[in-house]
Design a protein that fits this description.
590 residues, alpha+beta, Beta-lactamase, 2 domains, five-stranded antiparallel beta sheet, four-stranded mixed beta sheet, elongated, peptidoglycan L,D-transpeptidase activity, penicillin binding, coiled coil, membrane
Protein backbone atom coordinates (compact mmCIF):
# COMPACT_ATOMS: atom_id res chain seq x y z
CA UNK A 1 0.00 0.00 0.00
CA UNK A 2 2.79 2.38 0.93
CA UNK A 3 4.73 1.49 -2.22
CA UNK A 4 1.70 2.32 -4.40
CA UNK A 5 1.27 5.67 -2.65
CA UNK A 6 4.95 6.59 -3.19
CA UNK A 7 4.66 5.60 -6.84
CA UNK A 8 1.62 7.83 -7.34
CA UNK A 9 3.34 10.75 -5.62
CA UNK A 10 6.39 10.28 -7.88
CA UNK A 11 4.23 10.27 -11.02
CA UNK A 12 2.41 13.43 -9.92
CA UNK A 13 5.69 15.19 -9.12
CA UNK A 14 7.17 14.10 -12.45
CA UNK A 15 4.15 15.40 -14.35
CA UNK A 16 4.22 18.65 -12.40
CA UNK A 17 7.94 19.08 -13.13
CA UNK A 18 7.33 18.42 -16.84
CA UNK A 19 4.58 21.03 -17.05
CA UNK A 20 6.71 23.48 -15.08
CA UNK A 21 9.60 23.04 -17.53
CA UNK A 22 7.27 23.46 -20.52
CA UNK A 23 5.77 26.59 -18.95
CA UNK A 24 9.21 28.09 -18.29
CA UNK A 25 10.38 27.36 -21.84
CA UNK A 26 7.19 28.88 -23.25
CA UNK A 27 7.51 32.02 -21.15
CA UNK A 28 11.14 32.39 -22.18
CA UNK A 29 10.17 32.04 -25.84
CA UNK A 30 7.44 34.66 -25.50
CA UNK A 31 9.80 37.08 -23.79
CA UNK A 32 12.49 36.60 -26.45
CA UNK A 33 10.11 36.88 -29.40
CA UNK A 34 8.39 39.94 -27.93
CA UNK A 35 11.73 41.64 -27.54
CA UNK A 36 12.70 40.85 -31.13
CA UNK A 37 9.34 41.16 -32.84
CA UNK A 38 8.08 44.64 -33.89
CA UNK A 39 5.20 45.72 -31.68
CA UNK A 40 4.47 49.10 -33.23
CA UNK A 41 3.39 50.25 -36.64
CA UNK A 42 6.83 51.80 -36.97
CA UNK A 43 8.55 48.44 -36.41
CA UNK A 44 9.82 49.06 -32.85
CA UNK A 45 10.64 46.15 -30.53
CA UNK A 46 10.34 45.99 -26.74
CA UNK A 47 14.11 46.29 -26.41
CA UNK A 48 14.14 49.37 -28.60
CA UNK A 49 11.23 50.88 -26.71
CA UNK A 50 12.98 50.23 -23.41
CA UNK A 51 16.08 52.03 -24.64
CA UNK A 52 13.97 54.88 -26.02
CA UNK A 53 12.36 55.32 -22.59
CA UNK A 54 15.84 56.17 -21.34
CA UNK A 55 16.55 58.55 -24.23
CA UNK A 56 15.43 62.16 -24.36
CA UNK A 57 14.99 62.85 -28.10
CA UNK A 58 14.53 65.95 -30.25
CA UNK A 59 13.98 66.39 -33.99
CA UNK A 60 16.73 68.13 -35.95
CA UNK A 61 15.23 67.82 -39.42
CA UNK A 62 11.75 66.65 -40.39
CA UNK A 63 12.94 65.28 -43.73
CA UNK A 64 10.45 67.47 -45.59
CA UNK A 65 11.43 68.62 -49.09
CA UNK A 66 12.64 72.16 -49.75
CA UNK A 67 11.98 75.02 -52.17
CA UNK A 68 14.56 76.75 -54.36
CA UNK A 69 14.29 79.66 -56.78
CA UNK A 70 14.72 79.36 -60.57
CA UNK A 71 18.53 79.52 -60.14
CA UNK A 72 18.73 76.98 -57.31
CA UNK A 73 18.93 79.49 -54.43
CA UNK A 74 17.42 77.99 -51.27
CA UNK A 75 14.09 79.51 -50.21
CA UNK A 76 13.53 77.19 -47.24
CA UNK A 77 15.88 75.35 -44.94
CA UNK A 78 19.01 76.66 -43.26
CA UNK A 79 21.21 74.88 -40.72
CA UNK A 80 21.40 76.60 -37.34
CA UNK A 81 23.70 75.28 -34.63
CA UNK A 82 22.02 75.77 -31.28
CA UNK A 83 22.94 74.69 -27.74
CA UNK A 84 20.42 72.12 -26.56
CA UNK A 85 19.62 71.39 -22.92
CA UNK A 86 18.81 67.81 -21.98
CA UNK A 87 16.83 67.07 -18.80
CA UNK A 88 19.70 65.64 -16.73
CA UNK A 89 20.05 65.54 -12.95
CA UNK A 90 22.65 67.84 -11.46
CA UNK A 91 23.32 71.23 -13.02
CA UNK A 92 26.87 72.29 -14.00
CA UNK A 93 29.12 74.42 -11.83
CA UNK A 94 28.54 78.17 -11.63
CA UNK A 95 31.28 79.17 -14.10
CA UNK A 96 30.06 76.76 -16.80
CA UNK A 97 26.51 77.97 -16.29
CA UNK A 98 27.64 81.59 -16.61
CA UNK A 99 29.43 80.91 -19.92
CA UNK A 100 26.37 79.14 -21.31
CA UNK A 101 24.16 82.05 -20.20
CA UNK A 102 26.37 84.43 -22.19
CA UNK A 103 26.05 82.29 -25.31
CA UNK A 104 22.25 82.27 -25.16
CA UNK A 105 22.00 85.88 -23.94
CA UNK A 106 20.07 84.94 -20.79
CA UNK A 107 20.59 85.76 -17.09
CA UNK A 108 22.24 82.78 -15.30
CA UNK A 109 19.44 82.52 -12.74
CA UNK A 110 16.80 82.42 -15.49
CA UNK A 111 18.76 79.74 -17.37
CA UNK A 112 19.16 77.70 -14.19
CA UNK A 113 15.44 77.87 -13.43
CA UNK A 114 14.53 76.95 -17.00
CA UNK A 115 16.88 73.97 -16.98
CA UNK A 116 15.42 72.64 -13.75
CA UNK A 117 11.89 72.75 -15.16
CA UNK A 118 12.35 71.02 -18.51
CA UNK A 119 10.99 67.53 -19.07
CA UNK A 120 12.25 67.18 -22.65
CA UNK A 121 15.25 68.48 -24.64
CA UNK A 122 15.16 72.24 -25.22
CA UNK A 123 17.01 74.17 -27.96
CA UNK A 124 18.05 77.71 -27.02
CA UNK A 125 18.37 80.63 -29.44
CA UNK A 126 21.81 82.22 -29.36
CA UNK A 127 22.78 85.88 -29.37
CA UNK A 128 24.70 85.20 -32.60
CA UNK A 129 22.06 84.81 -35.32
CA UNK A 130 24.74 83.86 -37.88
CA UNK A 131 24.93 80.30 -36.57
CA UNK A 132 25.23 78.25 -39.76
CA UNK A 133 28.63 76.85 -38.68
CA UNK A 134 29.29 74.76 -35.59
CA UNK A 135 30.61 77.05 -32.84
CA UNK A 136 33.94 76.24 -31.24
CA UNK A 137 34.00 75.68 -27.50
CA UNK A 138 33.03 73.16 -24.86
CA UNK A 139 29.62 73.01 -23.27
CA UNK A 140 28.67 71.66 -19.83
CA UNK A 141 27.52 68.07 -19.41
CA UNK A 142 23.91 67.77 -20.51
CA UNK A 143 24.29 70.42 -23.23
CA UNK A 144 25.12 69.72 -26.88
CA UNK A 145 25.66 71.85 -29.98
CA UNK A 146 23.14 70.45 -32.48
CA UNK A 147 22.43 71.33 -36.14
CA UNK A 148 18.74 72.25 -36.57
CA UNK A 149 17.09 72.71 -39.93
CA UNK A 150 15.18 75.99 -39.65
CA UNK A 151 12.53 76.00 -42.38
CA UNK A 152 11.99 79.75 -42.67
CA UNK A 153 15.32 81.39 -41.79
CA UNK A 154 14.47 84.89 -43.04
CA UNK A 155 11.59 85.55 -40.66
CA UNK A 156 9.34 88.36 -41.94
CA UNK A 157 8.42 87.92 -45.58
CA UNK A 158 6.06 89.00 -48.34
CA UNK A 159 6.17 85.51 -49.81
CA UNK A 160 2.67 84.45 -48.84
CA UNK A 161 2.70 82.34 -52.02
CA UNK A 162 5.25 80.08 -50.30
CA UNK A 163 2.95 79.51 -47.32
CA UNK A 164 3.74 77.75 -44.06
CA UNK A 165 3.52 74.34 -42.36
CA UNK A 166 1.61 73.30 -39.26
CA UNK A 167 0.60 70.22 -37.31
CA UNK A 168 -2.73 69.01 -38.70
CA UNK A 169 -3.68 65.64 -37.16
CA UNK A 170 -6.95 65.58 -39.12
CA UNK A 171 -4.98 65.67 -42.38
CA UNK A 172 -2.42 63.10 -41.21
CA UNK A 173 -5.16 60.59 -40.35
CA UNK A 174 -6.49 60.87 -43.89
CA UNK A 175 -3.12 60.24 -45.56
CA UNK A 176 -2.12 56.91 -46.99
CA UNK A 177 0.86 55.04 -45.60
CA UNK A 178 4.11 56.57 -46.82
CA UNK A 179 4.82 54.90 -50.14
CA UNK A 180 8.60 54.83 -49.71
CA UNK A 181 8.87 54.04 -46.00
CA UNK A 182 5.86 51.73 -45.81
CA UNK A 183 4.99 53.23 -42.41
CA UNK A 184 2.16 55.52 -41.33
CA UNK A 185 3.01 59.21 -41.16
CA UNK A 186 3.59 60.32 -37.52
CA UNK A 187 0.59 62.17 -36.14
CA UNK A 188 2.78 65.13 -35.06
CA UNK A 189 4.27 65.57 -38.56
CA UNK A 190 3.96 69.07 -39.98
CA UNK A 191 2.18 69.40 -43.32
CA UNK A 192 1.37 72.26 -45.66
CA UNK A 193 -1.21 74.71 -44.34
CA UNK A 194 -1.17 77.34 -47.11
CA UNK A 195 0.65 78.44 -50.26
CA UNK A 196 2.99 76.12 -52.13
CA UNK A 197 3.57 74.26 -48.86
CA UNK A 198 -0.06 73.14 -49.22
CA UNK A 199 -0.42 72.74 -52.99
CA UNK A 200 2.91 70.84 -53.28
CA UNK A 201 2.50 68.89 -50.03
CA UNK A 202 2.10 65.54 -51.79
CA UNK A 203 5.65 65.89 -53.16
CA UNK A 204 7.24 67.41 -50.07
CA UNK A 205 6.37 64.74 -47.50
CA UNK A 206 9.56 63.00 -46.49
CA UNK A 207 10.20 59.39 -45.52
CA UNK A 208 11.71 60.12 -42.14
CA UNK A 209 13.75 62.84 -40.53
CA UNK A 210 16.80 63.19 -38.32
CA UNK A 211 16.52 62.91 -34.55
CA UNK A 212 19.08 63.05 -31.78
CA UNK A 213 18.72 61.46 -28.36
CA UNK A 214 20.62 61.75 -25.10
CA UNK A 215 20.74 58.74 -22.78
CA UNK A 216 19.46 59.12 -19.20
CA UNK A 217 18.34 56.75 -16.49
CA UNK A 218 14.98 56.85 -14.71
CA UNK A 219 16.15 59.73 -12.52
CA UNK A 220 17.47 61.75 -15.49
CA UNK A 221 21.14 61.06 -14.72
CA UNK A 222 23.18 61.03 -17.94
CA UNK A 223 24.32 57.63 -19.20
CA UNK A 224 27.76 57.96 -20.83
CA UNK A 225 27.44 54.39 -22.12
CA UNK A 226 24.53 55.51 -24.31
CA UNK A 227 25.58 59.13 -24.96
CA UNK A 228 24.21 61.17 -27.84
CA UNK A 229 22.73 59.20 -30.73
CA UNK A 230 21.66 60.52 -34.11
CA UNK A 231 19.10 58.60 -36.13
CA UNK A 232 18.52 59.55 -39.74
CA UNK A 233 16.93 58.09 -42.86
CA UNK A 234 19.52 57.62 -45.57
CA UNK A 235 17.84 57.62 -48.99
CA UNK A 236 19.29 58.77 -52.35
CA UNK A 237 15.96 60.26 -53.48
CA UNK A 238 14.62 62.11 -50.43
CA UNK A 239 14.15 64.87 -49.42
CA UNK A 240 13.04 66.33 -52.75
CA UNK A 241 13.60 69.84 -54.07
CA UNK A 242 10.80 71.96 -55.57
CA UNK A 243 12.13 74.42 -58.14
CA UNK A 244 10.03 77.57 -58.32
CA UNK A 245 9.94 80.20 -61.08
CA UNK A 246 10.79 82.95 -58.56
CA UNK A 247 13.96 85.06 -58.66
CA UNK A 248 14.87 85.25 -54.99
CA UNK A 249 16.95 88.41 -55.37
CA UNK A 250 14.13 90.31 -57.08
CA UNK A 251 11.56 89.00 -54.59
CA UNK A 252 13.68 90.25 -51.69
CA UNK A 253 14.31 93.66 -53.27
CA UNK A 254 10.62 94.21 -54.00
CA UNK A 255 9.66 93.28 -50.45
CA UNK A 256 12.12 95.90 -49.20
CA UNK A 257 10.79 98.42 -51.73
CA UNK A 258 7.21 97.92 -50.55
CA UNK A 259 8.29 98.61 -46.97
CA UNK A 260 10.44 101.61 -47.91
CA UNK A 261 7.53 103.13 -49.86
CA UNK A 262 5.13 102.38 -47.00
CA UNK A 263 2.77 100.13 -48.93
CA UNK A 264 0.77 99.00 -45.91
CA UNK A 265 -1.75 96.97 -47.90
CA UNK A 266 -1.42 95.72 -51.45
CA UNK A 267 0.50 93.49 -53.83
CA UNK A 268 3.16 93.44 -56.55
CA UNK A 269 3.25 90.77 -59.28
CA UNK A 270 6.09 90.39 -61.79
CA UNK A 271 5.78 87.93 -64.68
CA UNK A 272 8.26 86.88 -67.33
CA UNK A 273 6.93 88.41 -70.56
CA UNK A 274 8.13 85.45 -72.64
CA UNK A 275 6.03 82.68 -71.10
CA UNK A 276 4.18 84.14 -68.15
CA UNK A 277 6.19 82.57 -65.31
CA UNK A 278 5.87 84.37 -61.98
CA UNK A 279 9.21 86.04 -61.16
CA UNK A 280 8.13 87.79 -57.94
CA UNK A 281 4.91 88.07 -55.96
CA UNK A 282 4.78 90.38 -52.95
CA UNK A 283 1.84 90.73 -50.56
CA UNK A 284 1.58 93.45 -47.90
CA UNK A 285 1.48 93.47 -44.95
CA UNK A 286 4.46 91.15 -44.61
CA UNK A 287 4.21 88.20 -42.23
CA UNK A 288 6.44 85.80 -40.31
CA UNK A 289 5.84 82.14 -41.28
CA UNK A 290 7.55 81.09 -38.03
CA UNK A 291 4.86 82.84 -35.97
CA UNK A 292 1.49 82.69 -37.71
CA UNK A 293 -1.40 84.74 -36.38
CA UNK A 294 -4.41 83.37 -38.24
CA UNK A 295 -6.70 86.16 -37.05
CA UNK A 296 -4.65 89.08 -38.42
CA UNK A 297 -4.86 87.81 -42.01
CA UNK A 298 -1.29 88.81 -42.95
CA UNK A 299 -0.63 85.24 -44.14
CA UNK A 300 -3.28 85.71 -46.86
CA UNK A 301 -1.87 86.32 -50.35
CA UNK A 302 -3.33 89.60 -51.64
CA UNK A 303 -1.75 89.05 -55.05
CA UNK A 304 -4.44 86.45 -55.81
CA UNK A 305 -7.35 88.12 -54.00
CA UNK A 306 -9.89 89.94 -56.17
CA UNK A 307 -10.24 93.72 -55.80
CA UNK A 308 -12.16 96.48 -57.61
CA UNK A 309 -9.92 97.34 -60.61
CA UNK A 310 -11.00 100.84 -61.61
CA UNK A 311 -9.69 102.17 -64.92
CA UNK A 312 -7.33 99.29 -65.73
CA UNK A 313 -10.56 97.50 -66.75
CA UNK A 314 -10.89 100.05 -69.58
CA UNK A 315 -8.40 97.86 -71.47
CA UNK A 316 -11.03 95.10 -71.48
CA UNK A 317 -13.73 97.51 -72.69
CA UNK A 318 -11.47 98.85 -75.45
CA UNK A 319 -10.70 95.28 -76.54
CA UNK A 320 -14.40 94.32 -76.54
CA UNK A 321 -15.34 97.43 -78.54
CA UNK A 322 -12.63 96.86 -81.16
CA UNK A 323 -13.27 93.11 -81.43
CA UNK A 324 -17.04 93.52 -81.81
CA UNK A 325 -16.94 96.59 -84.06
CA UNK A 326 -18.73 98.72 -81.47
CA UNK A 327 -15.89 101.22 -81.94
CA UNK A 328 -13.24 101.73 -84.60
CA UNK A 329 -9.63 102.90 -84.31
CA UNK A 330 -9.38 106.69 -84.34
CA UNK A 331 -13.09 107.20 -83.62
CA UNK A 332 -13.82 110.59 -82.05
CA UNK A 333 -15.89 111.20 -78.91
CA UNK A 334 -16.92 114.36 -77.07
CA UNK A 335 -16.23 114.75 -73.35
CA UNK A 336 -17.91 117.68 -71.62
CA UNK A 337 -16.86 116.47 -68.19
CA UNK A 338 -20.28 114.93 -67.48
CA UNK A 339 -21.92 111.84 -68.94
CA UNK A 340 -25.31 113.30 -67.96
CA UNK A 341 -26.52 109.83 -66.97
CA UNK A 342 -26.11 107.59 -63.95
CA UNK A 343 -24.17 110.30 -62.08
CA UNK A 344 -20.96 109.60 -64.01
CA UNK A 345 -18.40 112.40 -64.34
CA UNK A 346 -14.97 112.62 -65.90
CA UNK A 347 -12.04 113.22 -63.58
CA UNK A 348 -11.11 116.32 -65.62
CA UNK A 349 -13.33 119.30 -64.73
CA UNK A 350 -14.80 120.76 -67.91
CA UNK A 351 -13.96 117.61 -69.85
CA UNK A 352 -11.49 116.71 -72.60
CA UNK A 353 -13.55 118.11 -75.47
CA UNK A 354 -13.07 116.25 -78.75
CA UNK A 355 -11.04 113.14 -77.99
CA UNK A 356 -10.19 109.95 -79.91
CA UNK A 357 -10.58 106.40 -78.64
CA UNK A 358 -6.80 106.13 -78.23
CA UNK A 359 -6.58 109.46 -76.41
CA UNK A 360 -9.53 108.39 -74.27
CA UNK A 361 -7.52 105.44 -72.93
CA UNK A 362 -4.33 107.51 -72.52
CA UNK A 363 -6.27 110.18 -70.59
CA UNK A 364 -8.49 107.58 -68.86
CA UNK A 365 -11.62 109.49 -69.91
CA UNK A 366 -14.70 108.20 -68.07
CA UNK A 367 -17.15 109.70 -70.58
CA UNK A 368 -15.61 107.83 -73.53
CA UNK A 369 -15.72 104.50 -71.73
CA UNK A 370 -19.17 104.94 -70.20
CA UNK A 371 -20.47 105.42 -73.75
CA UNK A 372 -18.56 102.35 -74.97
CA UNK A 373 -19.99 100.32 -72.09
CA UNK A 374 -23.53 101.14 -73.18
CA UNK A 375 -22.73 100.17 -76.76
CA UNK A 376 -21.66 96.68 -75.69
CA UNK A 377 -23.78 93.79 -74.46
CA UNK A 378 -23.10 92.05 -71.14
CA UNK A 379 -22.15 88.91 -73.08
CA UNK A 380 -19.56 90.79 -75.15
CA UNK A 381 -17.93 92.33 -72.08
CA UNK A 382 -17.95 89.04 -70.16
CA UNK A 383 -16.55 87.06 -73.11
CA UNK A 384 -13.70 89.52 -73.69
CA UNK A 385 -12.83 89.59 -69.99
CA UNK A 386 -12.68 85.79 -69.95
CA UNK A 387 -10.56 85.75 -73.13
CA UNK A 388 -8.07 88.01 -71.34
CA UNK A 389 -7.97 85.72 -68.29
CA UNK A 390 -10.36 87.60 -65.98
CA UNK A 391 -13.36 86.20 -64.07
CA UNK A 392 -11.66 82.80 -63.72
CA UNK A 393 -8.70 81.22 -61.96
CA UNK A 394 -5.67 81.29 -64.26
CA UNK A 395 -2.84 79.71 -62.24
CA UNK A 396 -1.23 76.48 -63.46
CA UNK A 397 -3.71 73.65 -63.09
CA UNK A 398 -4.12 69.98 -63.99
CA UNK A 399 -7.33 67.99 -63.58
CA UNK A 400 -5.25 64.87 -62.98
CA UNK A 401 -1.54 64.89 -62.17
CA UNK A 402 0.70 61.86 -61.58
CA UNK A 403 -1.29 60.12 -58.83
CA UNK A 404 -4.51 61.19 -60.51
CA UNK A 405 -5.31 63.99 -58.08
CA UNK A 406 -6.25 67.50 -59.21
CA UNK A 407 -3.50 70.07 -58.78
CA UNK A 408 -3.68 73.86 -58.51
CA UNK A 409 -0.20 75.34 -58.02
CA UNK A 410 -1.37 78.69 -56.65
CA UNK A 411 -3.19 78.45 -53.33
CA UNK A 412 -5.95 80.91 -52.30
CA UNK A 413 -6.46 82.13 -55.89
CA UNK A 414 -9.81 83.82 -56.49
CA UNK A 415 -11.63 83.92 -59.83
CA UNK A 416 -12.91 87.49 -59.64
CA UNK A 417 -15.96 88.51 -61.67
CA UNK A 418 -17.43 91.02 -64.12
CA UNK A 419 -21.14 91.03 -63.21
CA UNK A 420 -22.78 89.91 -60.00
CA UNK A 421 -24.79 86.73 -60.69
CA UNK A 422 -27.94 88.26 -59.18
CA UNK A 423 -27.60 91.67 -60.85
CA UNK A 424 -30.04 93.04 -63.43
CA UNK A 425 -27.76 94.49 -66.09
CA UNK A 426 -29.10 97.76 -67.51
CA UNK A 427 -27.43 100.77 -69.12
CA UNK A 428 -26.26 102.16 -65.80
CA UNK A 429 -24.65 98.86 -64.81
CA UNK A 430 -22.90 98.64 -68.19
CA UNK A 431 -21.57 102.22 -67.94
CA UNK A 432 -20.27 101.71 -64.39
CA UNK A 433 -18.81 98.31 -65.29
CA UNK A 434 -16.91 99.92 -68.18
CA UNK A 435 -15.12 102.10 -65.62
CA UNK A 436 -14.05 99.05 -63.61
CA UNK A 437 -16.48 99.80 -60.79
CA UNK A 438 -19.84 98.29 -59.77
CA UNK A 439 -19.36 94.50 -59.37
CA UNK A 440 -16.06 94.06 -61.23
CA UNK A 441 -13.31 92.25 -59.29
CA UNK A 442 -9.80 91.44 -60.57
CA UNK A 443 -6.73 89.94 -58.88
CA UNK A 444 -3.25 91.48 -59.31
CA UNK A 445 -2.11 88.19 -60.87
CA UNK A 446 -4.91 88.39 -63.44
CA UNK A 447 -4.00 92.02 -64.15
CA UNK A 448 -0.32 91.21 -64.80
CA UNK A 449 -1.26 88.17 -66.87
CA UNK A 450 -3.62 90.31 -68.99
CA UNK A 451 -0.53 92.26 -70.08
CA UNK A 452 1.29 89.00 -70.91
CA UNK A 453 -1.72 87.98 -73.03
CA UNK A 454 -1.54 91.22 -75.03
CA UNK A 455 2.21 90.76 -75.55
CA UNK A 456 1.49 87.34 -77.08
CA UNK A 457 -1.05 88.49 -79.67
CA UNK A 458 -3.99 87.69 -77.41
CA UNK A 459 -2.87 84.18 -76.45
CA UNK A 460 -3.65 83.38 -72.81
CA UNK A 461 -1.03 81.75 -70.55
CA UNK A 462 -1.48 79.93 -67.24
CA UNK A 463 1.24 81.40 -65.00
CA UNK A 464 3.47 78.94 -63.15
CA UNK A 465 4.98 79.21 -59.69
CA UNK A 466 6.73 75.82 -59.95
CA UNK A 467 8.62 74.42 -62.95
CA UNK A 468 9.74 71.02 -61.64
CA UNK A 469 10.31 68.74 -58.65
CA UNK A 470 13.72 67.07 -58.35
CA UNK A 471 14.82 64.06 -56.33
CA UNK A 472 17.78 64.41 -53.97
CA UNK A 473 20.10 62.90 -56.61
CA UNK A 474 19.06 65.56 -59.17
CA UNK A 475 16.82 63.36 -61.29
CA UNK A 476 13.35 64.63 -62.18
CA UNK A 477 10.34 63.56 -60.16
CA UNK A 478 7.75 65.82 -61.87
CA UNK A 479 7.64 68.59 -64.46
CA UNK A 480 5.08 71.34 -65.00
CA UNK A 481 5.21 72.47 -68.65
CA UNK A 482 4.29 75.98 -69.80
CA UNK A 483 0.57 76.11 -70.57
CA UNK A 484 -1.21 78.42 -72.98
CA UNK A 485 -4.82 78.30 -74.11
CA UNK A 486 -5.28 77.44 -77.77
CA UNK A 487 -8.15 77.30 -80.26
CA UNK A 488 -11.32 79.03 -79.12
CA UNK A 489 -9.60 79.79 -75.82
CA UNK A 490 -6.86 81.72 -77.65
CA UNK A 491 -8.00 85.14 -76.37
CA UNK A 492 -8.43 88.23 -78.52
CA UNK A 493 -7.04 88.87 -82.01
CA UNK A 494 -3.39 89.86 -82.63
CA UNK A 495 -4.57 93.09 -84.29
CA UNK A 496 -6.56 94.20 -81.24
CA UNK A 497 -3.71 93.16 -78.92
CA UNK A 498 -1.26 95.34 -80.87
CA UNK A 499 -3.65 98.31 -80.82
CA UNK A 500 -4.00 98.07 -77.03
CA UNK A 501 -0.22 97.88 -76.54
CA UNK A 502 0.19 101.07 -78.58
CA UNK A 503 -2.50 102.76 -76.47
CA UNK A 504 -0.67 101.69 -73.28
CA UNK A 505 2.49 103.34 -74.58
CA UNK A 506 0.55 106.57 -75.14
CA UNK A 507 -0.48 106.49 -71.47
CA UNK A 508 3.21 107.10 -70.66
CA UNK A 509 4.06 109.52 -73.46
CA UNK A 510 0.99 111.78 -73.29
CA UNK A 511 -1.41 110.51 -70.64
CA UNK A 512 -1.78 109.77 -66.94
CA UNK A 513 1.61 107.99 -66.70
CA UNK A 514 3.82 110.85 -67.91
CA UNK A 515 5.80 110.77 -64.65
CA UNK A 516 7.43 107.55 -65.89
CA UNK A 517 9.10 109.11 -68.92
CA UNK A 518 12.31 109.39 -66.87
CA UNK A 519 12.44 105.65 -66.11
CA UNK A 520 15.50 103.59 -67.06
CA UNK A 521 13.39 101.66 -69.59
CA UNK A 522 10.78 102.91 -72.02
CA UNK A 523 7.55 101.72 -70.41
CA UNK A 524 3.89 101.21 -71.30
CA UNK A 525 0.95 100.73 -68.97
CA UNK A 526 -2.38 101.79 -67.56
CA UNK A 527 -3.33 103.33 -64.24
CA UNK A 528 -6.50 102.73 -62.28
CA UNK A 529 -8.22 104.18 -59.23
CA UNK A 530 -11.29 102.49 -57.79
CA UNK A 531 -13.49 104.16 -55.18
CA UNK A 532 -14.64 101.96 -52.30
CA UNK A 533 -16.31 102.59 -48.95
CA UNK A 534 -15.05 100.66 -45.91
CA UNK A 535 -16.34 101.22 -42.41
CA UNK A 536 -18.06 104.37 -43.67
CA UNK A 537 -14.83 105.86 -45.05
CA UNK A 538 -14.17 106.68 -48.71
CA UNK A 539 -10.98 104.97 -49.81
CA UNK A 540 -9.15 104.37 -53.08
CA UNK A 541 -7.71 101.16 -54.51
CA UNK A 542 -4.81 102.30 -56.69
CA UNK A 543 -3.51 100.24 -59.63
CA UNK A 544 -0.83 100.42 -62.27
CA UNK A 545 -0.17 97.62 -64.77
CA UNK A 546 2.21 97.53 -67.71
CA UNK A 547 5.37 96.17 -69.31
CA UNK A 548 8.91 97.06 -70.25
CA UNK A 549 11.07 97.72 -72.04
CA UNK A 550 8.76 98.63 -74.93
CA UNK A 551 11.22 97.60 -77.67
CA UNK A 552 11.85 94.11 -76.27
CA UNK A 553 9.41 93.39 -73.43
CA UNK A 554 10.93 91.32 -70.62
CA UNK A 555 8.50 91.77 -67.75
CA UNK A 556 4.80 92.39 -67.16
CA UNK A 557 4.00 93.99 -63.81
CA UNK A 558 0.89 94.74 -61.76
CA UNK A 559 0.91 96.95 -58.66
CA UNK A 560 -2.04 97.32 -56.28
CA UNK A 561 -1.99 99.71 -53.31
CA UNK A 562 -5.12 99.24 -51.21
CA UNK A 563 -7.18 101.47 -48.97
CA UNK A 564 -5.48 104.78 -49.71
CA UNK A 565 -7.18 107.96 -48.44
CA UNK A 566 -9.43 109.57 -51.05
CA UNK A 567 -7.54 112.32 -52.88
CA UNK A 568 -4.06 111.04 -51.95
CA UNK A 569 -1.30 110.92 -54.57
CA UNK A 570 -1.18 107.85 -56.82
CA UNK A 571 1.35 105.71 -54.96
CA UNK A 572 0.83 102.69 -57.25
CA UNK A 573 2.25 104.62 -60.23
CA UNK A 574 5.35 105.55 -58.25
CA UNK A 575 5.81 101.97 -57.01
CA UNK A 576 5.43 100.63 -60.58
CA UNK A 577 8.21 102.92 -61.83
CA UNK A 578 10.53 101.87 -59.00
CA UNK A 579 9.77 98.19 -59.65
CA UNK A 580 10.66 98.60 -63.31
CA UNK A 581 13.92 100.38 -62.41
CA UNK A 582 14.86 97.47 -60.13
CA UNK A 583 14.12 95.01 -62.94
CA UNK A 584 16.19 97.09 -65.38
CA UNK A 585 19.15 97.15 -62.98
CA UNK A 586 18.85 93.40 -62.39
CA UNK A 587 18.86 92.74 -66.14
CA UNK A 588 21.90 94.99 -66.67
CA UNK A 589 23.68 93.35 -63.75
CA UNK A 590 23.07 89.82 -64.99
Amino acid sequence: MLVRLKKRIFIVLLAFSFFLIVFAVRMGWLAWSAAARPLTAGGRTINELAVRQREQGIELDSGRGHFVDRDGVRLTGEIQWLPTLFPVHGLPETESLRKLAEIVDMPPDELKAKWKMIQAPLALETANKESSKRPIGDLPEGVEWLPYMKRYPEGRSGSQWLGYVAQRPDVIRGLKIGQESGRPFPIQMQVGASGLELSMDRFLRGIGGTRVSYGTDGRYHSLPSIGTRIRTTDNPYYPVQVQTTIKERIQRELEKLSEDMKVEEGAIVVQDARQGDIIAMVSNPLYDPNHIQITDGAWSNRAVKAEVPGSIFKLVIAAAALESGAARPGEMFHCSGEYHRYGISCWKAGGHGEISLEQGLAQSCNVVFAELGERLSPAQIAATASALGLSRKIGWHADSFMSGEELWQIDQEEAGRVFHPAATVDGGVLAQTALGQRDVLVTPLQAANLVVTLLHDGQLFSPRLVSKVLYKDGSTMAEFPVKKKLGREAGISPKTSHQLLVMMRRVITEGTGRSMRSSQWELAGKSGTAQVIKSGKKLNQQWFIGYGPVSQPQYAVAVLVQNRPAGSHHLATEVFRRVMDILAQDTDGS
